[in-house]
Automatic annotation (TrEMBL), chain A:
Pfam families membership: Oxidored_q2
Source organism superkingdom: Bacteria
InterPro entries reported in the protein's UniProt record: CPA3_antiporter_subunitC (IPR050601), NUOK/Mnh_C1-like (IPR039428)
Species assigned in the record: Methylobacterium phyllostachyos
Protein name per Swiss-Prot or TrEMBL: Multicomponent Na+:H+ antiporter subunit C
UniProt entry tagged with the keyword Repeat: no
Composition bias type Basic and acidic residues, residue spans: 123-135
Its membrane topology: Multi-pass membrane protein
Cleaved signal peptide residues: none
Organism lineage string: Bacteria, Pseudomonadati, Pseudomonadota, Alphaproteobacteria, Hyphomicrobiales
Places the protein is found: Cell membrane
Keyword Transmembrane helix: yes
Automatic annotation (TrEMBL), chain B:
Cellular compartment(s): Cell membrane
Protein name: MrpA C-terminal/MbhD domain-containing protein
Keywords: Cell membrane, Membrane, Transmembrane, Transmembrane helix
Coarse class of the protein's main subcellular location: membrane
Record lineage: Bacteria, Pseudomonadati, Pseudomonadota, Alphaproteobacteria, Hyphomicrobiales
GO terms under cellular component: plasma membrane
Length: 135, 83
C-alpha cells in the first residue's frame, strides 16, 4: 500500500505526458496537462498520509491525536489554485492561437512574422473592423 | 476501510487515463469533470477535507466550465470565418 500512491502518481504523470506528446488539439493538450497536475496532488497527499490518523482538525479531538500532515495539504491547496489559473491562461492562449492561425492543431502552427506572410490576411481586416466598432 | 484507499487510487489512475484517451475535446470535458469527482472522493478518504472541497469547486465545476467557454469561443470563431 505504501508504494501505491507513488505508483499512481507516476502513472498519471506518464500518461499525461503521453497525451501531451501525441495530442493533435490544443484544448485536449490542456486537459492532459491537468492530468499531469493531478499526479502532483496524489504524490503530495500520499507523502503526508498516515494510517489510522485523523484529519488535522482538532475541534473535537484532544491535542496530540495522530493526524495527517497539514503542510502537504496546504501545498496541495495552493497547487490546485495555481493549476486552475494555468488552465485558464493556456485556454486563452489557445483561443488566441486559433484566432490567429485558424487551427487548433499544433502541427499546423506557423511562426509569427512581422510581415503578413504567415497567418491570414483577413485577420487584420477583421481586427481593424473590430477596432473601428469599438471606437 | 483498508480496501477503500487502494480502490480510490486505482479509480483516479483509470479516470486520468480516460481524460487522455478521449481525443474529442467536446467529450473530454465530461471525462475531466469525472476525474475531478474521483479526486474529490480520494482526497476526502485521504483525510484532507479542505483540499477535497477546493477540488470539488475547481476540478469538477470551474475547469470544465472554462473548457466549455474555450470550445464555444473556438466554435464561434470558426463559424464566423466561413462566410
Amino acid at each position: 500500500m505504501s508504494v501505491l500512491p507513488y505508483a499512481v502518481a507516476a502513472w498519471l504523470f506518464g500518461v499525461g505526458l503521453y497525451g501531451i506528446a501525441t495530442s493533435r488539439n490544443f484544448i485536449h493538450l490542456v486537459g492532459c496537462l491537468g492530468v499531469c497536475q493531478s499526479a502532483t496532488y496524489v504524490l503530495l497527499l500520499g507523502l503526508g498520509y498516515r494510517w489510522g490518523s485523523i484529519a488535522p482538525i482538532f475541534y473535537d479531538h484532544p491535542p496530540g491525536t495522530p493526524a495527517v500532515d497539514p503542510v502537504m495539504q496546504a501545498l496541495v491547496l495552493t497547487d490546485i489554485v495555481v493549476g486552475a489559473t494555468l488552465t485558464a491562461l493556456l485556454l486563452v492562449l489557445t483561443v488566441q492561437a486559433h484566432k490567429r492561425g485558424g487551427s487548433l492543431d499544433p502541427e499546423k502552427l506557423r511562426p509569427m512574422r512581422a510581415g503578413r506572410k504567415s497567418g491570414r490576411s483577413q485577420d487584420t481586416s477583421r481586427g481593424d473592423e473590430a477596432a473601428r466598432g469599438a471606437r | 476501510m483498508t480496501i477503500l484507499l487502494p480502490l480510490l487510487l486505482l479509480f483516479a489512475a483509470i479516470s486520468g487515463t480516460a481524460v487522455v484517451l478521449v481525443r474529442d475535446p467536446n467529450r473530454q470535458v465530461f471525462a475531466i469533470a469525472a476525474n475531478g469527482l474521483v479526486l474529490t472522493i480520494l482526497f476526502d478518504a485521504l483525510q484532507a477535507p479542505d483540499v477535497a472541497l477546493s477540488e470539488l469547486a475547481v476540478g469538477t465545476a470551474a475547469v470544465p466550465l472554462l473548457f466549455l467557454v474555450a470550445l464555444m469561443a473556438v466554435r464561434a470563431n470558426a463559424s464566423g470565418e466561413e462566410p
